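Teaching assistant here, posting this on the class forum so everyone can see the example we discussed in section. The complex has two components, and the goal was to see what a joint structure prediction looks like when all of them are supplied at once.
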Amino acid sequence: MGESTTILSVSDLVTGFQTDAGQVVAVDGVSFDLEQGKTLGIVGESGCGKSVTAMSIMRLLPQPAGQILGGSVLYNSEDLVQAPDERMRVIRGSEIGMIFQEPMTALNPVHRVGRQLSETLLLHEDLSKKDAWERSVELLEMVGIPSPEVRVGEYPHQLSGGMRQRVVIAIALACNPRVVIADEPTTALDVTVQAQILDLIKSLQDRLGMSVIMITHDLGVIAETCDDVVVMYAGRVAERGPIDAIFNNPQHLYTKGLMDAIPKIDSPRKQKLNTIEGSVPGLAEMPTGARFAPRSWHPQIQDYLDSEEFKTTRPELVQIGENHWVEDCPYVRVF
Amino acid sequence: MSQDSSDSLLEVENLQVHFPVKEGVFSRAKRFCKAVDDVSFSIKPGETLGLVGESGCGKSTLGKAICRLLKPTSGKIRFEGDNIEALKKSELRPFRRDMQIIFQDPAESLNGRHTVGEILEEPFVIQKIGNSQQRKDKIKSLLDKVGLPRSSIEKYPFEFSGGQRQRIGIARAISLEPKLIVCDEPVSALDVSVQSQILNLMMDLQKEMNISYLFIAHDLSVVRVISDRIAVMYLGKFVELAEGDELFQNPLHEYTKALISAIPVPRPGFKKERIILRGDVPSPIDPPPGCYFARRSPIEVSEDVASQPGEYKEVNSGHWVEVHPATVRDYDRYS
């Protein structure tokens, strides 16, 4: 870590939401580095804070409820947490692009595809309307949309789900951003379309040299696309490291449990799957100690749950291999 | 096209469900959406038939038609030898005990204004079974069976997590000890760690109560784990049906191969050949003539050949496939 190739560095990010019941912390001290030209995966189950992390980086938290409460997001040694709003508007799109999950909600249904692409281009680049429209056609061609000169004049509802997601990708890439954050880019798509979209993101990355943060709950997508992985649980990083280390030598019980729980294409038929008992604690009732502890199957877990340490001390991450970090609490570690 | 039906619980023959497509306000329907188009299969007692296909292929419509939540356009549905395809609502009541359905989103299928106790009591009230005390005891044992605390009786659905709500949905479905449960994407909305809990519960209940499942899902890995046999549906038709291991090890239809090849494998560095289909799924309204899949298949055929229909037949024992020059590699062998 800390090599000169890091393009985006998140450290100790804390993001909270103001609710009727008081403040809840959704992202609690998350740190990771995105290396130039690489893909970093953030994986975790719903409510683990992976999307809020992305929204915090982009400073797109719902206002006024969502607030970044601490930490930094360094992009080319500029702290985005401190950046003024006007500066963020420039950064979004031209420096960091975002691909959203649901293309139908990310696109404006009453505007032609070309207008939505042009809008981004006109905002960030010095182009005439006509040039922007032509560039839109090129972008649609780049993301593999057949007869782009026709499609550019159509409305989102006239396109299939896969084509819409291609348009969303085209918008995200319109101004050649150096970082792209893809938040569950294929979750709403069918499996054959998902495969096409993942291939597309990969090939565009090879061609344009951008760095990608891939947020997903699907470990298969992570394995196929990522170089490094951050495993999040209940707002914190449980484990992070290079893809091979995480998949072949997981050290956190949550990572291991997740791997064992997914049905695989070669899982034996009609045999029980491994499970992780229990469910994620609610945001308002998060323990201070290791958050996975109440679901841990470590033999001495009860001792830890009863201990003062669990009530008062948050475990830090400890390095256990090259760039491989895991929560420093033996009761949630693979034993 | 009957398939060894002597010992079947459910037999479906040449089932069609067509929806009229109305154009204009007063005009009569001239065109039809063929959601289910000539489907035949059977399910044995205690067996799980998995049904996979991409969105819009008609799998949910088929599930609803079998439960007679929809009236089929034509074809036969025999349940324990009785024809139910044309029965009226009142005539269906005795069959409702034996056939239940579980939906994808339990939050939407459970009445939010009723307590869990009321939700679970309703089937007994409708079918006039037991007195108040007997029903209460029965509900308690149902909660035990699906792994929910007995204190749940007084609670409302919103007080539960997604996985727990699906347990409530399952408890309601099994309350009258049905013989068949149609499961429409029962785990698609759940996180992986919870998904495996629910799949295990369903497998346990099946063993204990000898229930048959029609298990509808878009996730092939999930279907593989829970199913005895698997059917692949494309644009309203079955294109392949085989015993689970056979389907995965020896898929014959190019569409099945494409689906299997598109699943992201949670194993970094795992290389496999991906079959990319041309274009998008055609509309079920006015589908192309002949073989629906021919124009997307990696095996390219002339328009003349494509416009000839394929033949859905048993090519090996228990292995059915749509045989057409564009759908199977070894056409001469199977035709």
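For the discussion questions: The domain at 1-110+166-233 of chain A is CATH 3.40.50.300 (Rossmann fold). Chain A touches chain B through 48 residues (CB under 8 Å). Think about how each of these relates to the inputs above.
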